[in-house]
Amino acid sequence: MSTTERCAGVAERLAEAERSNAEQIRESAELILGVIRADALVFTAGAGHSLAAVAETFYRAGGLACVYPVYHPELLPLHGAQHSTKTERRSGLAEEVLAERAPGPDDLLVVFSTSGVNPYPVELAAGARKRGASVIAVSSAASVAAAPKRAATTLIEEASIVLDSHVRPGDASYPADAPRTAPLSTVINAFLWNLVLAEVVDLGAAQGVDIPLWRSSNVDGGDEANAALLAKYGARVPALR
Q1: Residue 4 pLDDT more than 90?
Q2: Residue among 220, 202, 223, 219 nearest 211 (CA)
Q3: What is the value of pTM for the model shown?
């Protein structure tokens, strides 16, 4: 198989994700627009390699400025790979994290988890809903169905809106007849998030809502534009300091 054919396969997966989530992307953008109108925050969370999607949402050129990344160091594989897996499976951690700072009724929680069955993402979503926040799950229905259940419910069951990545169980995509490499969840998660942001910008323009977006620090005027956003959100988002 040529490189062109391999890339075409990825492009087909992205197109499928966009096509099948069109309504959910708009609904997600409407929720985010409501957060901006309320001068509230979009909380983003994940564990393991789903933290790559959280990094994509936070303090990123072209990204949304009103983002609060939910983070616990033991969930990052770079701080201990095996331990990060055990931590995601530990019931009660989500409530510990939410006790420090939790989304409220005007806020929104976005949880990235392809399998969507481990206690941390599931309990995080449930805890946010209990506090009155809406929840967007970026997950894979096929992966959730195939994964062993480790919590009372699943992330998909706890979410207000589900963006389905359609990632195969196990995440690998290549070779097609017996996938064992080329995981796609990180690529599709970022793609879906950026589709939502594009919709937010379009809806904001149509409805006269100014969308707070970061500029690159390496373009003229970037530092100045970002300084205003840091002044606005820095006190509420400790990770911006």
Answers
A1: no
A2: 202
A3: 0.96
